[in-house]
Amino acid sequence: MSTSTGTAASTKQRRLGFKERVNNLPRAVKILLWVVFAVFLFMLPLLNIPFITTEGSDFGGVLFTVATYVLVALGLNIVVGYAGLLDLGYVGFYAIGAYTVGVLSAEHAKLSWVVVVPIAIVVAMVSGVVLGAPTLRVRGDYLAIVTLGFGEIVRLTLVNSEWLGASRGISDIPKPPGVELFEVPSIDWSSGAPVVDLDTTSTFLKFGITDFVPYYWLALGVIALVLLFDILVKSSRVGRAWEATREDEDAAELMGVPTFRFKLLAFALGAAIGGLSGALFATKAGFINPQSFELLLSILFIAAVVVGGAGNRWGVIVGAIVVAYFPERFREFADFRVLVFGLALMLLAIFRPQGLLPPRRTVRAKRADARQAVLEEGEASA
Amino acid sequence: MPESTEPNRPDTSAESTAQTTPEATAEPTAAAAADDATTRPAVTPTTDATAPLADPADEVTEINPDVDITPDDIGVPEVAEGERLLEVDDVTLRFGGVVALNEVSFHINKGEILGLIGPNGAGKTTCFNVMTGVYQPTSGGIRYLGKPLGKRKKFQITKLGIARTFQNIRLFANMTALENVLVGVDAHHSTGIGAAMFRLPKHRREEAQGYARAMELLTFMGLDGKADELARNLPYGDQRRLEIARALATSPQLLCLDEPAAGFNPAEKAKLMELIRTIRDQGYTVLLIEHDMKLVMGVTDRIVVLEFGRKIAEGSPAEIRDNPAVIAAYLGVDEEDAS
Ligand SMILES: Nc1ncnc2c1ncn2[C@@H]1O[C@H](COP(=O)(O)OP(=O)(O)OP(=O)(O)O)[C@@H](O)[C@H]1O
Ligand SMILES: [Mg+2]
User: Ligand 1 pocket, B122 CB below 6 A?
Assistant: First the structure.
């Protein structure tokens, strides 16, 4: 036993990771940090922080785009990162979500946004089940090819269906009903130092056509909900079943995991979140056409997940920000964007093959240890 | 079973008793501890004196045999001790031209350790695969708890109480040791997306129960200090033990071990056999595939011998040792046995 107590002691003394250090903070400090961070994210489009803020395009709109990518990355992470299913046609669900909103609130009916978005989620989820039920029985490469085909079929259907507006698409998608609660001033840096600018404000929550900040706020709220959902589900039997299936499908099955059911669940949830992001996209854009749902988008979505670190929710968020934000920030180098992006991917593949933030699988025991340490600290100081 | 409870390997039992951690002794109830005291007599001073000498060089993780790991009730009919738990009825399995199993019949009694031996390619692993639903037999079938297994899926068979390990370790490499075992415990849980999302009482109850059982099993295996290590970072011997812990987590009526001692040195092998016996004493039935004839002889109650997909012998270790067909099959095949 002497050897094993030795290792236990050395694990305790080991340099603490970021997550553990955060976990070791007192509870009040942790909550305060989260609040500060949330307020910062909320205010971000209005802070006009030099260098970070995009020059050419509206920063609120850019942040909204980044937020939809984050949402997509979180959904795709469930499929690719947790369950280990390579889905190359994720844009298909994104398109289905967007078009459901378009069709039901503009093209063929005039339903309210509040009704249409849940329908879009359900439609995307059902399409995920319909695609997944026959294909999830095959493995690996086949699934990638089938989903790739699915993405293209959805796009081609959109192009060729008059009922869906064909290549002209659907326009005049109505805005969500807003409530005008309060105005948020922005910060002006033109004098060199930050000054509160009470003339340029955004209204919470007024969904207009010039100010995209409220859409960003909406997306931020949705991300928070999806993140919470992700955290709760991942740290349960469901999350373990996904991971076991990803690690070794046969062994998982022989340990009592109904792998097909769990793969289908991951696929359906991923599709639902993809549909939700598509619905948000359609809401903000106001019009959609098949060109918004090219195959390239699927590749970018996958890139976001892989760049960030498949399997780590914080990693894929970073990945989504990298993939969505940098091209907007450096628009002036637009011609070289793809080249730089390719180079960056190559460097990443060489130096960080697991992604920027590879999953560090901490478990309850570790958290329990940290909590215990906090408790003991509290008792000692009391 | 008197022969299994005798401390016939005083050195190992001495170490395992000496190495019992405080957590381990705190785990079982007083009754279980008292029960253990009767099955595992106190160590004599002479063996105690030799134990520290062996310690420094000893890298092997010590198990804590006193931890109570008796199987949970998984809702299958009880089989009385010594009654037939599983029957292999005339099973034939063909892979194209290869007849991997040829009209094989044998049975496993509740509470015994049955050895399944035979030269390479004899069909031992294939036999496991048929029993656990990986392959459907070409003809014949498996009867478990008196009923045919039929075309049940792999995970359904596991839920009915047949668990296994793999000849080539197949852990969930990027999950922690604890998570690996939790997956096994989860086999009998039913928390779904809703219960997890809203943290319903069912989720919390199952998580608490699963965590407790998983930690018991890890402590039993001496792996509690490594609960948070990724399975792929564990030393080879620990991985083997973790695989057994994961299988035990499903509370199986029948535990099938496919060459659990493969790659072990003789000392480790001896310890593993001790472990298997302890597992049986805690209420499990064990089917053991093992190459090393001598080891199988020491630990099993009965032995079934396969060769080229056929059963060539069945009986007690003593009968098998003297069986001419077995001697012929193993002659020149198994060097370890020849020595
Ligand atoms: N999936 C398969 N397809 C074709 N042949 C197979 C398959 N699985 C096993 N076999 C064949 O069946 C025979 C029995 O194999 P099996 O793995 O059961 O042997 P074993 O007794 O476990 O041997 P070992 O001691 O080497 O593990 C071998 O001839 C093997 O080649
Ligand atoms: Mg084998």
Answer: yes
